[in-house]
Amino acid sequence: MESPAGKLFYFSSFAVGSYIVKTLLEQHGTLPLDFFYSTIEVQSQDDAYQYLLYWLTKNQFNENKNRLRASTSLASGRNYWSDSDSDGGECDDLLDTENNADTEWKASLANTRQLIWSPSEGTHYFKYRGRYLGLTREVEERAAMSYSRTEKLRISCLGWDASVLKQLLLEARVEYSQKEKGKTVIYRAGKRPYDNEFYWARSTSRPARALSTVILDHEQKHAFLQDVQQYLHPSTMKWYSDRGIPYRRGYLFHGPPGTGKSSLAFAAAGFLGLNTYILNLNAHQLNEDSLAELFQELPRRCLVLLEDIDTNEMTSRRGGNKKKGKGNNRLSLSALLNTIDGVAAQEGRVLIMTTNHPEDLDPALVRPGRVDYQIEFKLANRDLTLQMFQNLFRDALPSIRSNYQDNEPDATSRTQSEKTDLVLPVSHHEMCRDNQQGSPVVDMKQLAVTFADKIPIDTFSPAEIQGYLLCHRESPVDAVEEAEAWVQKTLDERKQRELDAAKEAEADLEKEKRRKRRKSKKNQKKVDGKDDDGQGDTSEMSSSESGSDGDSDQDKKPNGAC
């Protein structure tokens, strides 16, 4: 173990060397720094910044250091992803969460977030693999009118060999990858605060969603996953290249809202281990150059998600009704098509577009070669409703049992027929509120069948049914009992919304008619006014002309005439 005196000597030498190099740098430029130091710089917009900072907070900088930054996220500024949003509170806190579990639970209810200890601004020194390294955290100047800021980290060591720095970054990347194992990382197109350029900003990471939780026809789901897996297989890229086929694959998910289009995309990304990149074509100031740059920055293996593609007027069917106010005039359909499958288009990625109205899309956007596979999502039928009920209550016992028969005075004297009646389907006896209040023995499979029978087919989206079931997640019996009332109430509300929408549309139409009538009258008045002015001028002109003629006649009369 190294003595304190040895450590002091090493740090003193390092500090003196740093001062000498700084002085030489100020006087002679960058050559002395290159000569004495090996340095690696990492910008905060890069994923490597997250790797390194996460590694430092876990291995070097914690509450035992003396110069720390306390925050609830790893990075500064609102444009950067917060590690604490998705790691379940992994980062250290002064609270001993193991000994204060109740306090931690209450804190989470209060919507508080754990503190993360990271190195403060300035230069720090630490030891790694027997060598002392320097770490400088530097905050760059804020852009004008910007609420965010950018940072950079520099790690350095004495000497010409930077291998130890590369090893550190590699270790940080591996450790971070282990932390992200089983999660889906989501990126969104954002704007850098200092130059207003678009880039892929890390949004969050979430646990990979199980494919079994996506309620979709089994054959459809299996065929889609098989197609994607085959496309991503290492041998497929060579197969495409040998035959001169662009190595790209596009999918279109279409159907009513709430039918699981985005859910399947996220579940597939988690299943295949792909990062997800979400792009909104209606983003403010997104132009053709920005779109092309975003696609060029995509990694080879990733999933690109364009949600609600029909809401942008440029993708609408040419000659059809355009949706005013929702389009981005800086983008054209040809620019989007060239970005997706043009000569310079990125290869190796999986493109998924979702829409509620496929009939409104321009045929050029969904032609084969751009969209290779389409999946239609429908409203819930009986089988889907049955699957949803079984999936939501899959952790429940095969039957819901109660102790009420043991509490009955004559429980031991019940006949065999009475005991058998307790396990009959739920429709054969009166259901109680929940297990705690005491309820008959209920077969969960039969309960699911009963629930599915009460939900009309092709009427509700899976999201609507799931929302209802979540309200009764503690009592599947209540979910079945109150299903009919919920169906009727929802249909009545839907009908009322349709009536209100029709009235509003009628009022808007009448308002538009009145506006047109007023405009027509106003234009007519202008025309009439011009006609009146023209006639007045004509009469005056006639009078003037006749007057001048009269004067001429009088002038022609002989003198002395009566």
Main features:
562 residues; alpha/beta; Rossmann fold; 3 domains; seven-stranded mixed β-sheet; four-stranded antiparallel β-sheet; 17 helices; disordered C terminus
Number of domains: 3
Largest sheet, spatial ordering of strands: 8-7-10-11-12-9-13
Which secondary-structure class do the elements indicate? Answer: alpha/beta
Shape: globular
User: What is the overall number of helices?
Assistant: 17
* Strand segment tally: 15
Q: CATH H level of the largest domain: which superfamily?
A: P-loop containing nucleotide triphosphate hydrolases
- Radius of gyration (CA) equals 37 Å
Determine and state the CATH class of the largest domain.
Alpha Beta
The parts where pLDDT drops under 50 for at least 5 residues are 77-98, 324-328, 399-439, 538-562
Q: Percentage of helical residues?
A: 40-55%
Strand content: 15-25%
Please state the second-level CATH architecture of the largest domain: 3-Layer(aba) Sandwich
* CATH fold description of the largest domain: Rossmann fold
In terms of quaternary structure, the protein is single chain
In whole angstroms, the N-to-C terminal distance is: 146 Å
Biased composition (Polar residues): 400-415
Catalytic activity: ATP + H2O = ADP + phosphate + H(+)
Keywords: ATP-binding, Hydrolase, Membrane, Mitochondrion, Mitochondrion inner membrane, Nucleotide-binding, Transmembrane, Transmembrane helix
GO molecular function: ATP binding; ATP hydrolysis activity
